[in-house]
Amino acid sequence: MTATGLRGSYSILNVRRVIAGPGSIESIGSIAAGQGVRKALIVTDRGVRDAGLIDRPKAALASAGVGAEEVVDVPPEP
Q: Taking the model in full, what pTM does it have?
């Protein structure tokens, strides 16, 4: 398989656990807290933030006592 438009090398780290389906966003806080996370970093672009798409994950983190910082100056993928 070839990909057009790729420049340079890249790396992908696959996670061991994928949680998907209705209500899965609300579980992010308890999962993070269960791993001992005290603060999460949300990396996004302004369009995603302005559309409100990080509000639910932030609320789920907060409800589990996990803080969250946002980095929103990331350019979107072309």
A: 0.73
